[in-house]
Design brief:
242 residues, 7 strands, single chain
């Protein structure tokens, strides 16, 4: 997989753009190019006809086409790189002071700068976690709607309002969306966990590759076998001689 800017970007004008989960985003319309020829931005026409500009580092090119990377995932990666780095530099600064390799007045100024930078990055990390929570809630709502669509589809099929071909097309669409949304939710929860752990000092935590989970609908419990009533005993007939 290569960056969009590593090749002639204008070869991709009109090419479709998808997200990391295979959803169609739109088509590449144009580029923002600096005087030295560097691609600084990419203009994408979305399906509704609106144009949006994205940073060029959000795009990757592979055999399947052009992919738009998640903004929130890129932001989490930057925060998880920057916060530990600034923290380590501040610790190294303190060690230099203990070894009397720097004057105390210089330590105070540099330490204050590192401290301010760390506080700013931590505030951004907390705001990012809140954004992730909102996106996870959006995925949950989408999954709920997809299950509702499935139930309604089954009802219409059961009463004969939809033919088998249309039913199969609809099922494929719903299941595809359910798979993509579930994968996105898993990714969001993974990067939230990484960011939260990093803020707690567990900087060794790494994001594992996304594993697409199969959606398994809950299986209703098997109802107990009905208990048959015990038949009444045959009546005893007593013959009395007169």
């Amino acid at each position: 997989m290569s960056k969009l800017s590593s090749t002639d970007p204008f070869l991709f004008i009109g090419k479709p753009v998808k997200d990391e989960y295979g959803r169609q985003i739109g088509r590449i319309a144009s580029f923002m190019v600096s005087p030295n020829g560097r691609v600084d931005g990419v203009f994408v026409e979305h399906g509704d006809g609106e144009f949006f500009r994205y940073s060029s580092n959000q795009f990757k090119v592979d055999d399947e086409g052009v992919m738009l990377l998640s903004t929130i995932k890129l932001r989490v990666k930057t925060l998880c790189d920057d916060i530990p780095l600034i923290w380590r530099k501040d610790q190294a600064l303190s060690e230099l002071l203990e070894k009397k390799k720097i004057p105390s007045e210089m330590f105070g100024s540099l330490h204050k700068n590192f401290e301010n930078m760390l506080n700013q990055l931590k505030a951004e990390a907390q705001a990012t976690i809140e954004t992730i929570d909102k996106q996870v809630a959006g995925c949950d709502q989408q999954i709920k709607e997809l299950y509702s669509a499935t139930v309604n589809l089954e009802i219409e099929r059961e009463i004969g309002k939809i033919d088998e071909k249309s039913y199969q097309i609809a099922v494929e669409m719903i299941q595809g969306n359910l798979k993509r949304t579930s994968a996105e939710k898993d990714d969001l929860e993974a990067i939230k966990s990484k960011l939260s752990n990093m803020l707690l000092g567990e900087t060794s935590t790494t994001i594992k590759p996304t594993e697409t989970k199969k959606e398994v609908l809950p299986v209703p419990p098997t109802p107990p076998a009905p208990t048959l009533p015990v038949p009444p005993e045959s009546p005893v007939v007593v013959h009395v001689k007169g």
